[in-house]
Amino acid sequence: MSKVKSQFPNGNFYLREGKDGNGVIHIRYFINGRYVHKSTGIKIDPKMWDVKSQKIKGSGNPRLNNIANQKNLILEEFKTNLDTQIHKYDGLLTYEVMSLILNGDFNTKEKQLKETDFIEYCQHLYRNKYEQGKISYSYWYNKKLVIDHFRDFFKDKYHKETISICDLTSTLFDDYKTFRIKKKHNSPVSVNKSLVPLYEGIKSLYESGLLEPLVYSSIYGKYENTRTTVYDPVVKEKTIRYLTPDQMNDFIAIYRNMKRQRTYEYMQMFLFSVNTGLRVSDIITLEWSHIDFKERKLKKNMVKTKEVVEIYLNNTAIDILNIWKKWNRNERFVFDMLHKDIDFNDRKYIHNTIAAKNRSIQTSLRSIGEKMKLPFHLTFHVARHTFAVFALRQNPNIYAVSKYLGHTSTRSTERTYAEFLPEDYRKTFLEKIDFGMAI
């Protein structure tokens, strides 16, 4: 049985040598791809530091040995105190939370949830932005008034002076939006402006680990709809961007002559998507364990829809996989876009990492599209559309293609790609339906 990894970061001591020849012992914790450091304040001769055991070496001199033992006990107590605070915290451990703990500015989560005033928190957030020169005085003043209005609404409705973090619910914000629209007769646009500083506070609390993901997702970004739905008698067709066979040949010609290694790899990933229909998020998270070379199949949970997709791998897809298998760069992830030890339980970190990788890929693809003189931007989703169009024209089985694309229903596939079905198959959607009713 494999060893279960701890969900808490492990701290370790190390020595920083100063200009005076002495060294200061520090402790560090690795969290979200970065180290959080803290000095213990203990100075020693660098020769006395045991790197392997992370302790101060003993001495043949009884007095010096006693001092070393005392300092080691202080180090042990120092780390135990930090570890206790970390283990007591039951929220999302972030770099910011770890920094607060190490700097001694962190209370227990329960205490913070009860004592942190949401209004003061939002005001402090915007005051800092103003003092740092990020916003103007008038902008800060206007947001301050909006935040105060939210406090007045809360006091009148709930008869409480302070909005603590544990008071924050989707119902509270729904009530506030209803109040602004029905009692104050504000427009949806005006209501949305009043929500901006409050949502910024919600986002900051979540990123600091003080707001649970479910609470955050139920509140943040839930703006009023400002679009007015008006009947339009003109039927507008949705444009699907995909590569024609000639454009695919142009792409492959550039791919074969590409000298820049990273761009060459991105183009391989694009080609893999053309031959499998996978989204960029599923390409980035594709693991070797998802591939069955013997059966020539790929099976994984899709990042966006959480649907299980099972795809037959054609010769081109197998060739691309064999190239990456030969390179042997990452024992877990096929296209070496994520670290092999990444924790998928840290959803925010995963989302940000995939988004960052996607930006790099899209930048390269856009330059390729310009070389090809395409009338539209070349994106990773163009590869997915290309797969769907090619697949439907080769085999007009809407159900099979829908399963390959990982759509939750065939209706989505039909609505998007019906125009690319062969004429005789498309007629089934357009045939006159006559029930023979005589009236």
Structural notes for this entry:
This protein is mostly helical and 439 residues long. The protein folds into 3 domains: 11-100, no CATH class; 110-219, Orthogonal Bundle (DNA polymerase, domain 1); 245-430, Orthogonal Bundle (hpI Integrase, Chain A), CATH 1.10.443. It is built from 17 helices and 8 strands. It has helices at residues 62-88, 95-102, 109-115, 118-131, 137-158, 170-183, 188-207, 213-219, 245-256, 261-276, 280-284, 315-327, 347-371, 380-394, 398-405, 410-417, 423-430, and strands at 11-17, 23-31, 34-44, 49-50, 55-56, 291-292, 297-301, 308-312. A 3-stranded antiparallel sheet has the order 1-2-3. The protein has a 3-stranded antiparallel sheet with strand order 6-7-8. The chain is flat. The N and C termini lie far apart (74 Å).
List keywords for this structure.
439 residues, mainly alpha, DNA polymerase, domain 1, hpI Integrase, Chain A, 3 domains, three-stranded antiparallel beta sheet, 17 helices, 52% helix, flat
Count of spatially separate domains: 3
Classify the beta-strand content into a percent band.
5-15%
> CATH superfamily membership of the largest domain, which one?
Intergrase catalytic core
Question: What is the β-strand count?
Answer: 8
Tell me, what is the CATH class of the largest domain?
Answer: Mainly Alpha
Average pLDDT confidence is 82
Binned, the helix content reads 40-55%
